[in-house]
Write a sequence for this structure.
């Protein structure tokens, strides 16, 4: 049976946060697409989307494709995407796929949000 | 000169699974359990699990056409200082063309993220790329309808791309 994925969205410090839980695989397509639309619609001024993977225990190649689709949509809308909570293994996968060239990675949500609200460099 | 006999390969586990999306999850956990006593560091077990998951997904979708009645075969073997996971479907040459068309296709699989983001390529196509980058060696063979991919990982030392 395909995995289950759930998403919760909320606005934090001007960012649209999508907290994902479960498995990011082919079965997550609708959940992820709906969560993105809900997140950016609820906070129409959000220029950054935070993908929180803290509660995700599995990502496969189809899940990577879904993340690519979210990133492509966000870029077309001139929104930045950052991610947090990835395990060391999935950070490596973000590196070898070069997703981390386009998605800044943070250890956890607090650090992702504090970076967004911190003083300009 | 003293000759030391090379140990025979040792089968650690062998099982089949129905060709249904999602069945790779319990299978990769079972493979991880079967190699638990070999001393593979946790990061390399994670890599092996990802490669096994992707190979099984290919076997389910491209090899067996998502037909549950056609099983995917999984065999885990310890051979010297490496563990080998063989995943077999019944897709024959068609599976090879669709998913893992021999060793050349495995090595040619190089998705371009920039093109995907620009819409010049579809977002999918990461499976073979992940397989190749996760394990030390990959080999593919088709024998009639049987299409098998072997994933090899040394139980010690760093990853080094090559062939079984």
């Amino acid at each position: 049976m395909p995995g289950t994925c759930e998403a919760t969205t909320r606005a934090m410090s001007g960012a649209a946060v999508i907290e994902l839980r479960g498995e990011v695989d082919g079965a997550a397509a609708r959940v992820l697409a709906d969560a993105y639309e809900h997140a950016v619609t609820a906070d129409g001024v959000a220029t950054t989307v935070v993908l929180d993977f803290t509660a995700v225990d599995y990502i496969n190649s189809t899940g990577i494709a879904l993340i690519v689709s979210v990133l492509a949509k966000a870029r077309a809308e001139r929104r930045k995407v950052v991610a947090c909570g990835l395990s060391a293994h999935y950070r490596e996968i973000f590196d070898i796929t070069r997703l981390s060239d386009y998605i800044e990675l943070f250890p956890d949500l607090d650090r992702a949000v504090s970076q967004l609200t911190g003083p300009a460099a | 000169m003293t000759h030391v006999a090379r140990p025979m390969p040792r089968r650690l586990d062998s099982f089949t699974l129905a060709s249904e999306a999602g069945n790779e999850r319990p299978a990769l956990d079972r493979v991880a359990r079967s190699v638990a006593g070999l001393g593979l560091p946790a990061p390399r077990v994670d890599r092996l699990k990802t490669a096994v998951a992707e190979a099984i997904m290919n076997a389910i979708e491209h090899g067996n056409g998502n037909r549950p009645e056609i099983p995917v075969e999984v065999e885990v073997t310890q051979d010297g200082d490496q563990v080998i996971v063989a995943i077999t479907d019944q897709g024959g040459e068609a599976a090879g063309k669709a998913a893992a068309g021999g060793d050349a296709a495995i090595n040619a699989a190089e998705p371009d993220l920039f093109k995907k983001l620009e819409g010049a390529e579809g977002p999918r196509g990461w499976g073979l790329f992940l397989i190749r980058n996760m394990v030390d060696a990959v080999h593919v063979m088709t024998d009639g309808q049987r299409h098998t991919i072997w994933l090899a990982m040394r139980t010690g030392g760093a990853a080094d791309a090559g062939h079984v």
Remarks:
- The longest helix of chain A spans residues 61-76.
- Chain A touches chain B through 30 residues (CB under 8 Å).
- The CA atoms of residues 12 and 71 of chain A lie 19 Å apart.
- The mean pLDDT of chain A is 91.
